[in-house]
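Example for tutorial group B:
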């Protein structure tokens, strides 16, 4: 496998599943690495059950009598254990871990009404707006989260935590220039905030400003950050630059900091794929699933590798697991529908189920996301409803910019639907340069 094909798989491994709501601005599957470099949310069921946030701006964690000062408000913590009136907390972003009084935090499940009441009592409470925005983001309400954090910044333009969180939210809307601007301001106000450097490094990475990203990651390390995403980001840059051995060391360091981080396993799998060793890549992802069987990301990552070696049934099983833990993942719904509609193996194809899955993906993206609509068109064609296939394919084409290189291929597929021919073709895998073995009878006309 060529390095370029392996790097496309790095992106694809991270794109099947996102546990935040998918939006019309989501990138095409496999075309960007953005989803690979987002610090973990408490999206796993076992995390969410014990997730909490701080009640007030005055907050800290203690370890052996030493205060650990978070770089900013806005973290979501997971309760590891309780000891009387104390809780041992860890976060999924900065690698913070320590004890705090139980009364200093509030469960995530109770936090939104709590901060709403604080806002009602004091409409100028910037901290309450910030924290409600954080909670709403965790609850997959991105639009209201952004509105709350915007208000926090308006009320307190020098609120570094709000600027950091807003930058993070801009990334989810694919507005990286604005994300960097917010982090530039945050660092100008507080040059000792390690998490600001982590976030800005992520944004520079996604803009392919790799040297700037590496400088920010190193600055975060120098300031004491133990965020696994730093090493994942550095490893992916190494892969981009064709140095899988160096990348492997970075991913292993990430796993020492966060042994269950799915992106670290994804990186290791990508490194093995770059070396042409699919067996080891799959073994790494098997290990990720074994360590954290409730992680939708790990199941989604393994599904992609299984697809690359034509193990369609097992890949479908993994996608079903993804949706068991993240039932409203538009991308997972879309990928299941695409597999059910276009799989070269006739035993896997099921047009009716594909239509159901693709329709739900379109609902979650407000019927305004081209890839979901194309998937629905393919599902309708497999189900024999070519009029609907033509309708949705045309709408998908209308959403594409004139200069989009995908437009000509979409028109070619539209002509197939007009000729009452289904689309049975795993185009993404071919696009990646991976071999696709089809029975002769299943080849496209």
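The residue assignment follows.
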């Amino acid at each position: 496998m060529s390095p370029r094909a392996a790097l496309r798989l790095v992106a694809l491994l991270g794109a099947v599943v996102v546990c935040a709501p998918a939006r019309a601005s989501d990138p095409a599957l496999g075309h960007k690495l953005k989803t690979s470099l987002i610090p973990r949310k408490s999206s796993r069921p076992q995390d969410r059950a014990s997730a909490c946030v701080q009640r007030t701006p005055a907050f800290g964690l203690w370890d052996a009598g030493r205060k650990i000062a978070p770089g900013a408000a806005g973290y979501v913590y997971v309760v590891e254990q309780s000891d009387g009136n104390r809780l041992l907390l860890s976060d999924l972003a900065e690698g913070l871990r320590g004890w705090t009084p139980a009364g200093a935090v509030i469960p995530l499940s109770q936090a939104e009404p709590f901060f709403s009441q604080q806002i009602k009592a004091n409409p100028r409470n910037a901290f309450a707006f910030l924290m409600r925005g954080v909670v709403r983001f965790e609850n997959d309400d991105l639009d209201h989260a952004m509105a709350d954090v915007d208000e926090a910044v308006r009320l307190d333009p020098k609120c570094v935590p709000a600027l950091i969180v807003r930058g993070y939210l801009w990334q989810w809307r694919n507005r990286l220039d604005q994300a960097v601007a917010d982090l530039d301001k945050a660092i100008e106000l507080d040059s000792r905030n390690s998490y600001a450097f982590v976030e800005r490094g992520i944004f520079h990475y996604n803009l392919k400003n790799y040297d700037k990203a590496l400088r920010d990651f190193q600055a975060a390390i120098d300031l004491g950050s133990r965020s696994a995403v730093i090493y994942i980001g550095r490893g992916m840059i190494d892969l981009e630059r064709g140095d899988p051995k160096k990348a492997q060391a970075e991913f292993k360091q990430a796993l020492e900091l966060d042994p269950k981080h799915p992106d670290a396993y994804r990186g290791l799998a990508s490194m093995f794929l770059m070396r042409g060793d699919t067996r080891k890549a799959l073994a790494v992802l098997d290990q990720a699933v074994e360590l954290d069987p409730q992680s939708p990301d790990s199941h989604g990552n393994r599904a992609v590798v299984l697809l690359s070696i034509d193990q369609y049934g097992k890949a479908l099983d993994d996608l079903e697991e993804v949706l068991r833990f993240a039932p409203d993942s538009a991308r997972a719904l879309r990928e299941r529908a695409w597999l059910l509609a276009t799989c070269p193996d006739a035993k896997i194809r099921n047009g009716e189920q594909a239509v159901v899955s693709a329709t739900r993906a379109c609902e979650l993206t407000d019927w305004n996301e081209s890839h979901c609509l194309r998937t629905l068109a393919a599902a309708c064609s497999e189900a024999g409803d070519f009029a609907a296939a033509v309708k949705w394919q045309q709408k998908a084409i209308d959403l594409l910019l004139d200069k989009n290189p995908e437009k000509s291929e979409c028109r070619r597929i539209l002509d197939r639907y007009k000729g009452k021919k289904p689309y049975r073709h795993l185009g993404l895998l071919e696009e990646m340069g991976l071999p696709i073995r089809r029975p002769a009878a299943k080849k496209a006309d």
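The mean pLDDT is 83. Compare this with the pattern of hydrophobic and polar residues in the output above.
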